[in-house]
Design brief:
The chain is 48% helix and 22% strand. The chain is of the alpha/beta class. Strands 3-2-1-4-5 form a five-stranded parallel sheet, with helices on both faces. The chain is globular and about 40 Å long.
């Protein structure tokens, strides 16, 4: 079984990793931790390094329990939701786990919702985890 965890270092994403760890242990799964940055929109080197550091944390989080894990920083010019869905299709994932947090209607309108996009477009089951 292949599990994708969308990870951005937030408390909601860390809660999603806890659920992914439980699922990976239960189903002897491989976990793919993804962090997406749009790219070309002015990411600074320190932002990329911070993202890599968060991915190292995530990979160690799973490795401590002997769970096979790959961590990927995706900088492909896509919105995070699109990045996750394309990766899901690329590896034929069996499950996606995402952390969600409450946002205002205006916040959703202005910034969109990667979580909503993933839920609606994924070909596999999506588990949402509240912060």
């Amino acid at each position: 079984m292949k599990i994708i965890v969308a990870y951005d270092g937030t408390n909601a994403a860390k809660a999603a990793m806890n659920v992914a760890k439980k699922h990976a242990k239960a189903f002897n799964s491989k976990v793919y931790v993804l962090t997406s940055m749009v790219g070309g929109s002015g990411e600074e080197a320190h932002e990329i390094e911070a993202a890599k550091s968060e991915l190292d944390y995530a990979q160690n989080f799973f490795a401590r329990d002997g769970i096979e894990c790959e961590a990927h920083l995706l900088i492909r010019g896509m919105d995070p939701g699109e990045d996750v869905i394309q990766y899901e299709q690329q590896i034929r994932a069996d499950e996606i786990i995402i952390g969600v947090r409450k946002r205002s209607k205006v916040g959703k309108l202005i910034f969109g919702s990667a979580s909503q996009y993933i839920i609606l477009e994924a070909q596999c089951p999506v588990v949402t985890v509240k912060e």
